[in-house]
Write a structure and sequence with these properties.
The protein is an alpha+beta fold. It has two helices and three strands. The protein has a three-stranded antiparallel beta sheet with strand order 1-2-3, with no helix packed on it. β1 and β2 form a beta hairpin.
């Protein structure tokens, strides 16, 4: 990822939006999921419609980093966003690897 990928205006809008959002508690963290549903171990949160501030960033990411593979089965675009919020600097998501059945092993998703 490159430095200054989003503008200060986009950052301010995104942070303002997230500060006004209600998050759902999942263990030691709070989460909000937007866009397409992504199931992960321990997930209980249902996705909400994609908000404009996040949608604009996903569109920028997709235009610059989306798949351009010659085989259409490998094409992808980012269509969901999971936001994790922690209560303090001592709480975090531990190092892990995803092992979800929904991920196509031949896709460009790293896990």
């Amino acid at each position: 990822m490159r430095e200054n990928f989003i503008t200060e205006e986009e950052e301010t809008e995104l942070l303002g939006f997230l500060e006004s959002e209600q998050f759902d508690r999942e263990g030691e963290r709070e989460v909000a999921q937007y866009g397409e549903y992504f199931k992960y171990m321990g997930s209980r949160t249902k996705p909400r419609p994609m908000p404009e501030p996040i949608d604009r960033i996903l569109k920028k990411l997709n235009s610059q980093y989306g798949s351009k593979h010659s085989e259409s089965r490998f094409h992808y675009s980012l269509n969901s966003c999971l936001v994790n919020r922690y209560s303090d600097n001592n709480t975090c998501l531990p190092e892990h690897s995803d092992n979800e059945g929904d991920i196509d092993l031949k896709s460009s998703i790293l896990f």
